[in-house]
């Protein structure tokens, strides 16, 4: 095995371990939030505010790196200029990929804004919508439901980014996607159809038995 393959394998193992740890912490946090809502009847907006305001000091050690990245994003050309570069590439290749089409669309919405800042703005807005929806969902659903929905959302985001940036889905990715979607569908079937149906049948039998018992007593 070459040095490059060893490094690639090491990076893959490290990334997999980080993802596993993140999943475990996410599941624990979901259960903790569910207990908090049950005990204190807190509002999801409070959880959204405090979980973010208390985490801001953690970024202080990274302030220099964040500033450098911000400067780099601000120095990127506007999408209108980038579109001219892409049009020349299009004449050579004869085709337009999805990122180029997306870039042209964003260029029409913010021609004077640097491309990097435009991407950052879009990312911030979508993250706000996402995290608000997650907190609202966690206040109304169980921790297991929230965790499964988040896993499916992450998988969909991963697949979209893979396709948008021109990468190929390997057989393992397809298998993993099938397992995640299949597990989510099975959980939805169990919680939304089979278990409620069984509960209704049990309640019907119980009510029927009580009705028969009361009839026998009156007779």
TrEMBL record:
Q: How does it sit in the membrane?
A: Multi-pass membrane protein
One Pfam family it belongs to? UAA
Q: Which UniProt keywords apply?
A: Membrane, Sugar transport, Transmembrane, Transmembrane helix, Transport
Chief localization: membrane
Kindly list the residue ranges recorded as spanning the membrane: 12-33, 116-137, 144-165
- Where, per UniProt, does this protein localize? Endomembrane system
The protein here is known as: Sugar phosphate transporter domain-containing protein
Query: Is Transmembrane helix set as a keyword in this record?
Result: yes
Please tell me whether the keyword Secreted is annotated for this protein.
no
Lineage, top ranks: Eukaryota, Fungi, Dikarya, Ascomycota, Pezizomycotina
A single GO cellular-component term from the record reads: Golgi membrane
Q: Which InterPro entries match?
A: SCL35B1-4/HUT1
Question: Any idea which GO molecular function terms this record carries?
Answer: UDP-N-acetylglucosamine transmembrane transporter activity; UDP-xylose transmembrane transporter activity
Organism the protein comes from: Friedmanniomyces endolithicus
């Amino acid at each position: 095995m070459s040095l490059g393959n060893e490094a690639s394998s090491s990076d893959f193992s490290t990334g997999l371990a980080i993802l596993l740890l993140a999943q475990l912490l996410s599941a624990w946090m979901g259960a903790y939030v569910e207990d908090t809502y049950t005990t204190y009847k807190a509002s999801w907006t409070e959880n959204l505010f405090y979980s973010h305001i208390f985490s801001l000091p953690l970024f202080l050690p990274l302030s220099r790196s964040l500033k450098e990245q911000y400067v780099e994003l601000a120095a990127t050309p506007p999408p209108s200029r980038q579109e001219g570069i892409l049009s020349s590439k299009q004449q050579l290749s004869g085709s337009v990929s999805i990122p180029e089409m997306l870039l042209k669309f964003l260029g029409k919405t913010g021609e004077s804004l640097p491309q990097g800042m435009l991407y950052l703005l879009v990312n911030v807005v979508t993250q706000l919508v996402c995290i608000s929806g997650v907190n609202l969902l966690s206040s109304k659903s169980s921790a297991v439901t929230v965790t499964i929905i988040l896993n499916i959302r992450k998988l969909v985001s991963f697949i979209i980014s893979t396709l948008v940036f021109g990468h190929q889905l390997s057989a393992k990715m397809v298998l993993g996607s099938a397992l995640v979607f299949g597990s989510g569908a099975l959980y939805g079937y169990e919680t939304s159809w089979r278990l409620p149906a069984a509960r209704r049948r049990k309640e019907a039998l119980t009510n029927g038995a009580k009705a028969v018992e009361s009839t026998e007593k009156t007779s």
